[in-house]
Design goal:
Layout (H helix, E strand, L loop, with lengths): L4 H9 L1 H7 L16 H7 L2 E11 L10 E12 L9 E5 L9 E9 L2 E4 L3 E2 L2 H9 L7 H9 L7 H13 L2 H4 L8 H9 L8 H11 L2 H12 L9 H12 L1 H12 L6 H17 L6 H10 L7 H10 L6 H8 L7 H15 L12 H16 L1 H9 L4
Antiparallel strand pairs: 1-2, 1-4, 2-3, 4-5, 4-6
Helix pairs in contact: 8-9, 9-11, 10-11, 11-12, 11-13, 12-14, 13-14, 15-17, 16-17, 17-18, 17-19, 18-19
Keywords: Signal
Length: 393
């Protein structure tokens, strides 16, 4: 059986989420993490100044000259070199066209006593003040996020994108304490607005789940159940927020509408799977482990997801599926190398379970895993060897 292009595209699109679930920092699991934010760059620099463009020398191709650009220092944010002064003119290599008075921030690092400047960052007065007034890196992450939360949909796109970036890079555990001051009504408005950047739906859905009330649960449910054939960016975060707000009751809805329903697009089912992973990792027991395993087991009926599901069930110590996996291994419908390797990895993980019985013996599921592995090594040594080669517990 061949995997569809749709599966490959969706799995790639959600890969960043999977990597975040594996991260020790547990950054926002439904956010598309950007590069360093403005304040992170500012805090990492050893020199930072607000400047205005004041001219320069244009390039000369005949002389292989890239030109120069002059910037006048208006304000010094910080300067570890102690060499900068207001009204000082800084000359940077390469000509950069602009208008006199255009504002830029220059960020520099010290090298052999000299400041090496990065590319100028064009700013407005508003975006500069946003950077300048942000809490320093010494402040607690939750305190910093409280500041950035006010700018999530700010009219200046540079500011709004950067504020989102702060949340995308923040540990989930530092977002949770803000639930009592989250802008609940604004979150609903942003989630309803087609002009909202789609990549932000995941964060806003999760935040609404953290701070929401009963009517917000219905709002999120309706958003999740909306019929669509499209790939919906951020719907996994909306589902995650819905589960945070509703627990088992919400999971019943996802079971019926996304996990067991084969008529929905693959991307919707995969998003629900991501929401399950989120609750297992970050849900703080809101939904019992066995209840989450129960929902994940539904996806064993989906060959196009089975390889991913099996490894999750192994790490979640779901030993109830062992006999079924051997049946799947020999099934024509699941005759895909990646599924077979995942089943082998399931048994490799299970046999390493360090728990013991009351009398200090080997648990039944560990013994059975060893037995099944021995059987597979005899019947299909090539697959077992391939699975072991890239096995990381």
């Amino acid at each position: 059986m061949l995997y569809s292009l749709a599966r490959r595209v969706v799995v790639a699109a959600f890969l960043s989420c999977a990597l975040m679930f594996a991260s020790s920092a547990w950054a926002c699991p439904f956010c598309s993490a950007p590069s360093l934010t403005l304040t992170e760059q500012l805090n990492a620099s050893q020199a930072a100044v607000l400047v205005q463009w004041s001219g320069g020398e244009e390039p000369n191709r005949e002389k292989s000259f890239a030109g120069t650009t002059n910037y006048e220092v208006l304000e010094i944010v910080h300067d570890d070199s102690g060499s900068l002064e207001k009204e000082q003119v800084l000359q940077l290599d390469r000509y950069r066209a602009a208008q006199k008075g255009d504002l830029f921030v220059l960020l520099g690092t010290l090298s052999d006593g000299r400041i090496e400047w990065s590319s100028p960052l064009e700013v407005t007065e508003a975006s500069y003040n946003y950077m300048r007034q942000a809490p320093t890196k010494e402040a607690a992450t939750t305190e910093r996020l409280a500041y950035f939360m006010k700018f999530l949909e700010y009219p200046d796109k540079l500011i709004a994108d950067d504020a989102y970036g702060e949340f995308a890079n923040a540990p989930y555990e530092d977002i949770v304490p803000l639930r009592s001051v989250m802008p609940r009504e604004d979150l609903r408005k942003w989630l309803s607005d087609p002009q909202t950047t789609p990549t932000r739906y995941g964060l806003y859905g999760l935040m609404l789940g953290l701070c929401g009330q009963e009517e917000d649960a219905e709002f999120l449910k309706n958003m999740i159940l909306e019929e669509t054939d499209d790939f919906r960016l951020g719907i996994d975060g909306v589902m995650g927020g819905y589960l945070v707000l509703t627990g088992d009751k919400g999971l019943d809805v996802l079971d019926e509408s996304k996990l067991a329903n084969r008529d929905v697009p693959f991307s919707e089912t995969f998003a629900a799977m991501q929401a399950l992973r989120f609750m297992w990792t970050c849900g703080d027991g809101e939904i019992a482990p066995e209840r989450l395993r129960q929902s994940m087991r539904i996806l064993l009926d989906r060959p196009n997801l089975a390889d991913l599901v099996i490894v999750d069930l192994a790490r979640w110590k779901d030993v109830s599926v062992m006999d079924r996996l051997i049946t799947i291994y020999n099934s024509e419908e699941y005759n895909v190398p990646s599924i077979k390797r995942s089943i082998v990895r399931y048994f490799l993980i299970t046999e390493k379970d360090s728990t013991t019985t009351a009398d200090g013996g080997v648990p039944e599921h560990v013994a059975k895993a060893k037995e099944y592995l021995a059987k597979l090594r005899e019947e299909d040594p090539k697959t077992v060897k391939a699975a072991e080669r890239y096995f990381f517990d």
